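Data availability (excerpt). The following record was deposited with the supplementary files.
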Amino acid sequence: MKPGGDFFRLAAPGDGPVTAWMCTAKDKSEFVFFAFRQAARPNAEIVTVRLAGLDPEAEYCAADGSCFTGEFLMNIGLRLPEAYGDAWSELLCFRRK
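Predicted structure:
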């Protein structure tokens, strides 16, 4: 991804169970999403993070083949996998289809 896009803080440290950021390309053709959980908790809740700054009409696909519309990602969100152990993190790259 070329520099010059937008940066979004989606979940600030200390505001919940995870911290999350994302960076979008200037033309919204791709984005990188990063989330981490500092410490595991017993019976941790399922975490969904709503993204920002996407084209609502576009379909974005990850390397694993999963695809979502920008509207879905900004309104419903991206469900994070269950974290086992401390210092869990997730880095996902999406491109417009």
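Summary of structural features: The helical segments are 70-75.
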